[in-house]
């Protein structure tokens, strides 16, 4: 088996060698290409974004070759490409450039970063003109083109761009009569009155007001030259607005994202790594993940960042991050949408949600809310073989749960601009989840080779009430044109969870006659957790492409858990101390990080270190205090516009969920009991990644070496009473080696495809279960292919196919799955409405699978079935003005809230 990883490494080396040779060899002579396509190549090569009005770029072509980029900086390349087309550029910051037309093509324009765009610079002039440009509501307009005109004939003398405070400055102006023209995307041109300038004088003009286009921003399409999926050095960016699946809910959308797996229980992972899910940089708690994502419409999402190689800035608990960026309006007035969807499988479900943003001058108020109702069917058929005798005891259990699910999600917040570069914000999130219904089980007993001896019928019921709230205050400062950025936040997150069950049962013989009626028992598990966060982050951008990020974080968690086991004793319930407990757990984590990034013309180096001190006190049991360091490293070399190679390393920690650190007890039935494990220790992983991009093909090689992996496995067997006790346990060493690829392909003008997955993987884990040592390893492969058909400007069809082989995980064997989903998207009412018809698992079923475990004295097979094959219809209606993405806010409780 030791030769297997070596063979995979050899395969990867061959691929990379071929890629390098191929990447170096592909050097085509200059060809005539659309300017928009060239800008996409510049984006990939220089890791920058371009902002332009699409009409200024459409139909323009340039003679371009990747050799053009060799030994040239971006300013030289842009000047050479744009000047012959009558276009020019302005450097907003190191990562963003604006492109705009030159009005007077007879004069050569010279770009001077930070000084504006100037023509006919007259060194004899010494005068200075300053002013400010605003809209009709006196809101400053940054990066507007300001042109100095000679009053007599309107000849263009100089051009500058307004800065981040909407101010502009003309220098070296001779005496004479002038006027100023202001131009900005989405606005009419405006002209100042004529004015006289004295020789050597200094003049401050009144604010120049310009009027928005009468048909609002909907009439001006702004493009950032982005494909459906962009490939960056440490992440993929899934631009949802360009996707055919930009409707439905977020879970449906995530299933179609590259490298994302959504399991039957809605566990979300990226490239198989432990994954943090954020919405606008705010964490989504695991306990509320499904209901939140199902009430968040895909139409409200602007893009999804799939961060496969996160830096030390992110909490050390995760090897990958999915950040869902939603749309919020920065246009004055009211903007929003409302969405309704219904689906039907064996049972039905319905969703309704809405989002609204209202902006007036410096105040922005926003809110989202959703309601989901469904009947959720879940069943497990289990066969357990207990004991080591020649005729072991066999239990066959059929468990069926029909849950009546109601979930409510609400978010409200406000941002106040204290100045052009300062914002203070308030944010409140809440998610309320209620689930109840019958939980029936039929358990039969017999010896191996013999007929059924007896049957236990249990008609239990269950009730779940859960709520998660987050209250947040944040402050953001951006200074010196983005060279300095400061963020401070503090938050409080209370979490409450109550699970109650009752278990009336009757024991029958093989003929169906009653043997006895066991005493009815009831369990109540109550959890209360309060989380307090304070965090500050600072970024400074030096000259010569150096950037430093640093920050501090403190979080304190108070957890209280009560487990009550109540037995019916002659008509009243008595608490059984053997299965009851009251627990208190306090945890404080202090962290600091630093990240240093250097960008050269063809290379990027990022090195970071995060240090965390953890203090845990479990009242009456133990007290732990430990310090950990978590380094992170990323290096990327770009050979040309079509080829790059990168390497990264990150060390992570996974702390146990708070709930599992206390001795709780949950009965699935009388013979399957889950318990907490106060002896749990953190899991540590070292993650290594080699990645390369060859044209549109991305190949990544990931290796994870871990120690202390968590797994829910048998912890004790009561062979006399046939009871299995399970708990979350630490395993020993684990490893995962996989080769991933992503390849988008546009087959025709109306047919595109996106393909991703782990084409080959091998994992291994070792652990001690029931006082015996075990090891399990195996190969696996998974693949996802999306076929996107643009049937017309208003109709899109998408087919998603999935295939996952059988695999090994946490000392268990899992069957694989395959299925095909389909969605039809129809734009209505001039783009304001969207109708979506879809079918999930129309061919095969992905959420029906089995799990096998083989240990000495314990063997089991569990077959899972869910009501996941469904037909859906949904409609979204957008109202108000155009949406422009706002800056994102973090809550800072990304790590801690995932452990709820």
Overall body shape: elongated
Separation of the first and last Cα atoms: 38 Å
Roughly what is the average pLDDT, rounded to an integer? 81
Give the uncertain stretches in residue-range form.
15-29, 104-123, 215-225, 882-894
Number of DSSP strands? 59
Strand residues, percent = over 45%
Q: Nearest-angstrom radius of gyration? A: 31 Å
Structural class: mainly beta
Percentage of residues assigned to helices: under 10%
Please, could you describe this protein's structure?
The chain has a 22-stranded antiparallel beta barrel. It has a six-stranded mixed sheet with strand order 18-19-24-25-22-23. β22 (275-279) and β23 form a beta hairpin. With 900 residues, it is mostly beta strands.
What is the fold's blueprint, element by element?
Layout: H1 3-25, E1 31-34, H2 35-46, E2 49-53, H3 54-57, E3 61-64, H4 74-82, E4 87-93, E5 96-101, E6 110-112, E7 116-118, E8 127-134, E9 145-150, E10 156-161, E11 167-173, E12 176-183, E13 190-191, E14 195-197, E15 202-204, E16 208-209, E17 222-223, E18 229-231, E19 235-238, H5 250-255, E20 260-262, E21 268-270, E22 275-279, E23 282-283, H6 289-295, E24 301-307, E25 320-326, E26 333-344, E27 348-360, E28 363-386, E29 393-419, E30 422-447, E31 454-479, E32 484-503, E33 505-509, E34 514-516, E35 521-541, E36 546-569, E37 572-575, E38 581-599, E39 603-618, E40 622-640, E41 643-654, E42 665-669, E43 672-675, E44 683-694, E45 697-707, E46 710-718, E47 723-730, E48 733-746, E49 751-769, E50 772-780, E51 782-790, E52 795-804, E53 807-809, E54 812-814, E55 817-828, E56 833-843, E57 849-855, E58 858-866, E59 870-880, H7 894-897
Parallel strand pairs: 2-5, 8-15, 8-16, 22-25, 43-47
Antiparallel strand pairs: 1-3, 2-17, 4-5, 6-7, 8-11, 9-10, 9-12, 12-13, 12-14, 18-19, 19-24, 20-21, 22-23, 24-25, 26-27, 26-59, 27-28, 28-29, 28-58, 29-30, 30-31, 31-32, 31-33, 32-35, 33-34, 35-36, 36-37, 36-38, 38-39, 39-40, 40-41, 41-44, 42-43, 44-45, 45-48, 46-47, 48-49, 49-50, 49-51, 51-52, ...
């Amino acid at each position: 088996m030791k030769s297997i990883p070596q063979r995979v490494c050899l395969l990867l080396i061959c691929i990379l060698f071929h890629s390098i040779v191929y990447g170096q060899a592909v050097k085509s002579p200059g060809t005539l290409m659309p300017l928009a396509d060239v800008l996409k190549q510049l984006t990939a090569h220089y890791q920058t974004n371009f902002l332009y009005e699409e009409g200024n770029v459409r139909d323009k072509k340039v003679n371009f070759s990747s050799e053009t980029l060799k030994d040239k900086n971006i300013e030289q390349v842009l000047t050479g490409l744009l000047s012959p087309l009558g276009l020019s550029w302005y450097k907003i910051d190191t990562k963003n450039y604006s492109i705009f037309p030159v009005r007077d093509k007879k004069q050569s324009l010279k770009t001077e970063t930070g000084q504006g765009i100037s023509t006919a610079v007259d060194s004899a002039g010494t005068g200075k003109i300053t002013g400010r440009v605003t809209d009709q509501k006196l809101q400053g307009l940054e990066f507007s083109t300001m042109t100095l005109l000679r009053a007599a004939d309107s000849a263009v003398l100089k051009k500058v761009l307004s800065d981040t405070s909407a101010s502009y400055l003309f220098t070296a102006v001779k005496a004479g009569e002038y006027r100023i023209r202001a131009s900005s995307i989405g606005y009419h041109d405006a002209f100042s009155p004529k004015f006289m300038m004295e020789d050597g004088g200094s003049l401050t003009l009144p604010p120049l007001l310009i009027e928005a286009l009468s048909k609002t921003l909907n009439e001006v399409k702004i493009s950032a030259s982005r494909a459906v999926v962009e490939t960056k050095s440490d992440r993929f960016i899934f631009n949802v607005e360009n996707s055919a699946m930009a409707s439905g809910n977020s879970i449906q959308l995530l299933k179609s994202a590259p490298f994302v797996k959504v399991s039957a229980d809605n566990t979300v992972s990226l490239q198989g790594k432990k994954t943090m899910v954020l919405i606008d940089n705010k964490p989504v708690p695991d306990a509320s993940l499904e209901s939140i994502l199902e009430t968040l419409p895909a139409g409200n999402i602007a893009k999804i960042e799939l961060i496969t190689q996160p830096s030390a800035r992110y909490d050390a608990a995760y090897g990958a991050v999915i950040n869902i960026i939603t749309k919020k309006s920065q246009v004055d007035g009211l903007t929003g949408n409302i969405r309704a969807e219904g689906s039907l499988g064996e049972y039905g479900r319905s969703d309704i949600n809405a989002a609204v943003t209202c902006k007036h001058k410096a105040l922005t108020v926003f809110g989202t809310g959703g309601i989901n109702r469904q009947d959720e069917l879940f069943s497990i058929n289990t066969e357990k073989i207990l004991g080591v005798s020649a005729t072991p005891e066999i239990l066959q259990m059929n468990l069926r749960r029909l849950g009546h699910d109601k979930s409510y999600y609400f978010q409200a917040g406000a941002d106040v601009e204290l100045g052009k570069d300062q914002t203070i914000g308030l944010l409140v999130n809440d998610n309320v989840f209620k689930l109840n219904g019958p939980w029936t089980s039929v358990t039969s007993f017999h010896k191996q080779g013999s007929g059924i001896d007896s049957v236990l019928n249990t008609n239990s019921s269950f009730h779940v009430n859960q709520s998660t709230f987050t209250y947040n205050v944040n402050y953001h400062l951006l200074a010196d044109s983005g060279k300095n950025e400061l963020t401070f936040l503090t938050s409080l997150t209370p979490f409450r969870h109550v699970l109650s069950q009752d278990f009336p049962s009757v024991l029958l013989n093989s003929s169906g006659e009653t043997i006895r009626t066991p005493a009815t028992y009831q369990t109540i598990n109550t959890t209360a957790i309060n989380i307090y966060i304070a965090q500050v982050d600072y970024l400074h951008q030096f000259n010569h492409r150096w950037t430093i990020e640093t920050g501090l974080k403190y979080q304190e968690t108070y957890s209280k858990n009560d487990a009550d086991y109540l037995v019916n004793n002659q008509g009243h319930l008595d608490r059984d101390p053997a299965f009851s407990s009251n627990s208190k757990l306090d945890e404080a984590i202090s962290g600091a990080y630093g990240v240093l990034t250097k960008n050269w013309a063809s290379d990027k180096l990022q090195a970071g270190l995060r240090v965390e001190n953890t203090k845990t006190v479990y009242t009456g049991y133990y007290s732990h205090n430990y310090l950990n360091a978590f380094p992170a490293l990323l290096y990327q070399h770009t050979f040309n516009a079509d080829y790059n190679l990168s390497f990264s390393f990150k060390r992570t920690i996974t702390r146990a969920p708070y709930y599992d650190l206390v001795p709780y007890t949950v009965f699935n039935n009388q013979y399957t009991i889950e318990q907490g494990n106060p002896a749990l220790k953190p899991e540590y992983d070292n993650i290594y990644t080699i990645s390369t991009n060859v044209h549109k093909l991305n190949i990544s090689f990931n290796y994870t070496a871990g120690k202390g992996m968590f797994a829910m496995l048998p912890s004790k067997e009561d062979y006399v009473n046939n009871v299995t006790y399970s708990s979350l346990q630490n395993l020993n060493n684990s490893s995962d080696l996989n080769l991933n690829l992503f390849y988008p392909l546009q087959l025709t003008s109306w047919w595109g495809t996106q393909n991703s997955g782990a084409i080959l993987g091998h994992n291994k884990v070792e652990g001690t279960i029931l006082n015996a040592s075990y090891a399990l390893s195996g190969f696996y492969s998974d693949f996802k292919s999306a076929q996107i058909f643009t049937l017309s400007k208003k109709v899109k069809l998408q087919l998603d196919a999935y295939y996952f082989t059988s695999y090994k995980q946490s000392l268990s064997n899992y069957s694989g799955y395959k299925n095909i989903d389909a969605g039809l998207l129809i734009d209505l009412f001039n783009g304001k409405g969207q109708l979506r018809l879809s079918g999930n698992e129309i061919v095969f079923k992905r959420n029906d699978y089995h799990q096998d475990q083989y240990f000495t004295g314990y063997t089991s097979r569990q077959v899972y079935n869910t009501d996941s094959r469904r037909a859906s219809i949904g409609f979204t209606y957008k109202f108000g003005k155009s949406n422009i993405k706002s800056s994102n806010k973090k809550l800072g409780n990304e790590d801690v809230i995932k452990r709820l």
